[in-house]
Write a structure and sequence with these properties.
By secondary structure, the protein is of the alpha+beta class. It is built from nine helices and ten strands. The chain has helices spanning about 15-30, 80-90, 130-135, 155, 215-220, 240-245, 245-260, 265-270, 295-310; strands spanning about 5-10, 30-50, 55-65, 65-75, 120-125, 140, 160-170, 175-185, 190-195, 230-235.
Length: about 325
């Protein structure tokens, strides 16, 4: 798994998926590798009122393979950055800048909030979330709109929308995922395109929003030349990403500190970042391959954010 970039094409024509496929086949010698299918469910529950306004909590669950990535948002809860600023101001009333801006440190006299404004968790198997809601009797209600076509795939599975398309490989370094955004009623709301550069898990971009020219140029090249097309790059800065996974990072930092203290020279040799192909059986995964759900986790966060910004979720 490598570094990814995401593009949202909201006004793609109904033939957009076929046009992109033809472009990948003809101009990039791409090969179709399989189906790209994601499902999204969204829920809401009332969390009380603040400043005279009713505040609703929202929850979106995006399923990729055997994992559901759940994004929760509570407008009435504080942000991690707000708590970090409060803690710093209490420790430094003179207004001295913080050494690590945005890092949340809970002091002994502070009470930790039960949760923050945004949270991103990973659930497996995907159906575990609905089972937990049912068992707890939680007051979460689905925001999926009813459909007259009961045979529709999105309707039959209870999803609010699905992303349905294909996965392509270009050479040995690139994977491209292309899919239509289909609502429960069957209406198509544009497309999503994702490019993954396999050799690297992360690219340090000089751009403030974290965009990469390498990924952007590839995604632009696979889009068909259509007038009035309005593709938009979907990005997230580091502060937003840290906001939704602060707790996970804190645990990882502590674990890494303990592991590094016990690391030997022999262990360091095994930390080679390159994956070497098995000469006898290239299909066998070698130690060092990019594995895990980290790539899918960030991809899910970007997709949910893009669809929420358009009011689709």
């Amino acid at each position: 798994m490598g570094f990814t970039g995401l593009v949202r094409w909201p006004n793609a024509p109904t033939t957009g998926l076929d046009l992109v496929k033809q472009n990948i086949f003809r101009n990039h010698a791409g090969i179709e590798r399989g189906k790209w299918f994601l499902s999204v469910k969204s829920f809401r529950t009332a969390s009380g009122s603040a400043h005279g306004f009713q505040m609703d909590r929202s929850m979106c669950a995006l399923t990729i393979s055997n994992h559901a990535f759940v994004f929760l948002e509570d407008p009435a809860a504080p942000q991690v950055a707000d708590m970090a600023a409060l803690a710093h101001n209490e420790q430094n009333p003179s207004g001295t800048p913080a050494d690590t801006p945005g890092k949340y440190v809970l002091h002994s006299h502070q009470s930790e909030p039960p949760h923050f404004r945004t949270t991103l968790i990973t659930a497996s198997p995907p159906g575990a979330l609905e089972q937990l809601i049912t068992q707890l009797g939680a007051r979460w209600t689905s925001t999926r709109q009813p459909s007259a076509n009961a045979r529709n795939q999105a309707m039959a599975t209870g999803n609010q929308l699905v992303i349905d398309g294909s996965i392509f490989s270009i050479g040995t370094d690139w994977l491209v995922r292309v899919g239509n955004v289909i609502l429960a009623g069957g209406a198509v709301k544009g497309m999503l395109l994702e490019a993954e550069y396999l050799p690297l898990p992360k690219i340090h971009s000089p751009a403030q929003n974290g965009t990469s020219d390498l990924l952007s140029n590839l995604l632009i090249s696979i889009l068909p030349n259509i007038s009035n097309a309005t593709p938009v790059a979907v990005t997230v800065d580091d502060s937003q990403w840290e906001e939704v996974q602060w707790n996970c990072n804190e645990t990882e930092y502590q674990d890494d500190g303990l592991k590094k203290a016990d690391t030997t020279d022999e262990d360091r040799e095994d930390d080679d970042i390159y994956a070497y192909e098995d000469e006898e059986d290239p299909s066998v995964k070698q130690k060092g391959d990019w594995t895990g759900v980290d790539r899918d986790r960030r991809s899910a966060f970007l997709i949910i954010g893009a669809l929420k910004s358009e009011g689709i979720l």
